[in-house]
């Protein structure tokens, strides 16, 4: 093992990263700095976290509030592309990784560390996302991934490891479901979900109410969209993070934003998860609603292609690449016109745009309907069709001739 | 106007095509054959249609039952691609046009007609779809599109036109909403929908119950999928058309398959419609569920690209083109593995896959979860990540060196 | 015909637009302003053009020098995308149309005209390019396309038309080949080219020497590329237009940049042309050479996709659309790294990059070759391959099990 | 190291695989079967190869003649897609790997081996291509990649290794360039090429004459193309492999098919190579020539997209995947119409189609030229343009209104 003096660990306060602190010190004989990213995972996870880190052996613990930045610099740009991984997943976990990695790198540079460490397992996507960001942002720093090195293979082993070292830990032995949360989403994996023929049960959902238990009364919410970004809710101007938390609250109440998906991990195998993205689902629906009014046919199709591409880039941890910049620049350009207002109805698990309008709307009652107008003459269509189908006609005449 | 002796009209029995028959005879001095395509638009539209056609002046009326063929030869192949126009629309009207046009051409060739006629308006997509099919299948036949020729400009004018000729007609003067139906879907346009800031009202929906009025009790339905096609419902093997009608019935009862969309027409303007595709929505959800199990990452992405492309081809009336054949061939190949069983839950407007399994499933509890296994070693990930992020690393080292 | 008071005509001084001036005055009873765009079509076409326009009946003639702007604002951005229409065509005619149309619109707004006119025929692409630009830039101005209106159907008819009006014209009766030129390219259509089984003859090529007659001695030229733009030739810093003319001269001498293509026109039929783009071919080759050094695998692939898309947008006259802006923004982002130096060898019709280097080069002798190094360890590959082929492995194991 | 009894080695007779035989026996204590694939790499490499293998310690040596199969089952399908990796590379090495791997697997299954071995280095693409094929075709067999295991790090070490074991070997100590050849191409890497600022020298090219030394007299060759496959040369019907060798001979004589490229390897770094594909370059040019006649605009664009995708699939060793099957099926469908005849001119390094014709040609002198005809009316264009640019017009009117 190479010589390392000071390592900055992405620390969550959970069982894994608690064990990593002493393990790093023992195996690398180095100082460990705990870095905590506040991405809206919830107060309960942050309370007393500094004390916990120190008690586990960290020489310092830094907490960075990344909540607003995550929404404005990562989530909003992604939403403009319309990225949904494999048609469904709003990329909740993926979206948080680059911003955490970037802040962790900044911390490492500041404290003069020579290594970075994360607690991601060796079968997941997150290790790739963290380490791809590290490679792009600080290629000279060493990376330690304990889960690919140590021989601790179970919660029991980890708890024993901590107990042996008399490091206090409140984690329970039994933990059926593994979860990840940030302001944008919460994910649940494991337990009954491991058999795809099982239905999710009530333990698979955390934030949102079961649609069947949601209010019988629908609720509407009005969103103001400016250049592809939600800027106000129900007439109230808000920061991006405020928009998200406000919509999370409303969406959760109506069971909005649940998906149960078997997805392709970047590392080659499939996994199943239940994801909740209540606010995100509402925003996505709202943006697409405004787009219906303002994007022409070709722009809409390209936006869909961009979303498909972006979904893979983001899922695969390629945020800090020239390709991602290029895709985001293209989406940003399309979003220039995406300004308008939509009313979204929330009811029993669904968010549906029921009203929409925009100063950039290409829809015109006058043009679309039956009668004559200035910009469109029925007779134009004849010529259009003739040219539009000309190659089919020539091909068919050709084939006829050959017979 | 060129000389035409016999024309085959795509006849629906409605006001427009009823007026077209005498108009054709008067303006082209030709024999008119009414051709009726039964694509599952409903018995009420077909009852007495032959008599009606004759009473309007047609010399003959042929009715072709295209229901099974439409589902098996047009809808099923489209579903394999995953085509949803502009992210939402299951292409209900679009899908019916090529099969009607093809059968109409066959009728024309059989009766020795020298022209084809349709009743589509000059601002819509359907004229393009019909005439593109005609160009590909019978480029030597003349095409007459009365709506682009005559000066009848309102329902009142059409009713007067018929009355003057003493042709009986039961159509009412007032018709706020224009609708199109076939086994796959029903669409509603006009009325309150013409202002995008208006919510749809109860007149905008025909087949499906309002989700808010749907049963409080969810229902599940089990679908068997073989090579991308639904072959059985709740254990009962069925023909494609039977599958569709069975699922239409179930879906409608739970308010499943409604969309309210502003879409880009092929002819350059936007229009708004409320579409209901209850059975189709369930099938689409079911197929995507099986795909989650059997398609790998790259296949899934390509299937999504094919769906995007196919959605435009089908919407734009390019079914009978080599490009469409090529896209369908690609999708067919991917669908080879799409075999499995899914349970779909219907509740208050939603169809959600809650259970799924497949003999071709690439998901494996053993591979996805925490522990070691034969095919995957945690340590593999280290090398993977290193190579995966190599260009980022080289780029970053390069940039560092330049500073 | 609607009332028009003053029309601005895109005037070339050739036979067609010379006849259009009196035709417009007679048929629209309006004032005609001749607008001449200097896009580098050559001095001989511009000499005395103002007098000619006045003699033909124009009330004024404005000449705009668009040469530098065309190269810097249209050609350079296009080159960053790598756009080659149908794999071969550097879009010489297409690229000039939007800039001419834009300047023509500006002229019309300045002189207070109420209409725009062009001399493009009714079977070509240029009418679409002009009128699409007009629609985007000045939708309120009327557009007159005489070739789609008048009944003049031959050069003879046009010459007679002018002679009857005693308008002097030096055009000859016989003109076998039709050509279009600007600083970027010259095209030749018609004559022997109308049969695809004919070889082009010496009349089909204008600027470039026949490769078989080109110097037996190869020549090299060194290009400096900065952010995707050629900024210096053989050590000499130059403006974009100077770069182009310098390379045109060099390329022509060696027979570089000829293509003989049957292409799909936007209006549905195919046409054949011989195009010469000597300088452009050298630049394209040079840019792609630098890209080989600096773009990673995914970026290179996306750049190719952008080029494919851009080739259609530009060919189809969709320059002034949000989609085009979006594509160009994406390409611009990728071009950020495209800085370097290349040596291009010119020999008997070919331009080949033989040397290349870049400060952003991701190529490293150290990494690519046999030995060990810091950033890459042979053993990493084992893990990479294992994960890379994991889904194939699982699929194959699955199939084995099923047997 | 796991227990292995019998391993089948992809044996070339070169230094590396000669050393691998004893190394396998010593390190795995197993029987080694040498498998030689004849993919047209040349007689000189095959002469006495069986004796050599036995002398090195192999218990048996099997030679499979894959030449015809390689061209008909791998190269021809690839050519239909138009695949050129990173715009230039005809995938010469990539294309041979899957067929070798497949035959090697078949050999292994026949002789009852439990492992497969290849001699690819740990920094290249070929290891991935071989092992991806193995994973798809025989996931149960172990794979041994000595270059990632042993500590032999130079030609000298390998020669010493063989000498110590008294295994005869004619390989020289000094070998500046590394080459790979099959019927389709020969590649050269290393030496002066390692600095991208160096020009290739005469040692970098093996098959083809220097264009500057090629005949001053151009030569033409006539190719018959049927459904995307070259079936005859100069009037002579030939098997695919015969076509290839015939065109290789002709192309080489004129210096056709050289490229000098810096490419992105799959494993993350860039490498530079000089590749010669004389026959392939002629065929590619010929196929694209016929396509110009028979593919409409949309088909041509999709074929280009397929080529782009296929280039990555083939380069990346993903031949035996459902995605590759899907792409090839799509290309096959498009190739249905690609039938015709072309004359290709060979001159000083270039292959240029100078004549082309096809019974499926959509080109028509009548349609493309000036005059009126039956299928196209000048006036159609007006309507086409109006609708084509409608969204631009509505957008622009909208913007005007907002001012």
TrEMBL record, chains A, B, C, D:
Pathway: Amino-acid biosynthesis; L-arginine biosynthesis; L-arginine from L-ornithine and carbamoyl phosphate: step 2/3. Signal peptide: none annotated. Residues 177-394 form the Arginosuccinate synthase C-terminal domain. SUPFAM superfamilies: Adenine nucleotide alpha hydrolases-like, Argininosuccinate synthetase, C-terminal domain. L-aspartate binds at residues 121, 125-126. It catalyses: L-citrulline + L-aspartate + ATP = 2-(N(omega)-L-arginino)succinate + AMP + diphosphate + H(+). ATP binds at residues 10-18, 37, 119. Belongs to the argininosuccinate synthase family. Type 1 subfamily. HAMAP family: Arg_succ_synth_type1. This is Argininosuccinate synthase.
